[in-house]
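Notes, Module 5: Reading structure tokens.

Key idea: the token line is not a picture. It is a compressed description, and you learn to read it the same way you learned to read a sequence, by spotting repeated patterns. We will look at two proteins. The first is printed below with its tokens.
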Amino acid sequence: MPTEGVTLVNDVLGLRSEKGIAVLPSLWSGTAPAAGATRTVVPMADILDRQLDVARRWGRTRAAAFGRCPVG
């Protein structure tokens, strides 16, 4: 297992449930390789707000913002 993966796992294990890790630039942005990204511990509310904002800009509903798809 690469050292970076172990470091990330240890970082995540050290967080309380109300915190998360924000990665900038976003992994899906295509603007920088993952090695050039920065990780910052932030409140989960900030991460979820950002996810909802991006989903709205892409025309997705709140349910679809978190990967759920309508049934039927």
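Here is the second protein, with the sequence above and the tokens below, as before.
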Amino acid sequence: MTLGEARGVALGEARGEARGALLGEIRMAQEAITTVLQARGVAVPAKVARTIAGCDDPSKLRRWLKRAATAATAAEVVAGSRRKR
């Protein structure tokens, strides 16, 4: 393997690790939102669960997690959001 190839492999591995870390953060946030709502006794309708599961924006998920701590309904958590199609 040449030096250029080795650098390419290392760069690819670093990108893969970063993508994996991001996906892990997203999945954890999605689960945390649902867990917080359920722990508070707030029902999570299927439509809201799909919206949460379909979100891949870490900033939005953090906002939703904060809302989940005080929202009266699960719909309030994701209110104003638009799901990607």
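Summary for the second protein:
- The longest helix spans residues 3-39.
- The mean pLDDT is 88.
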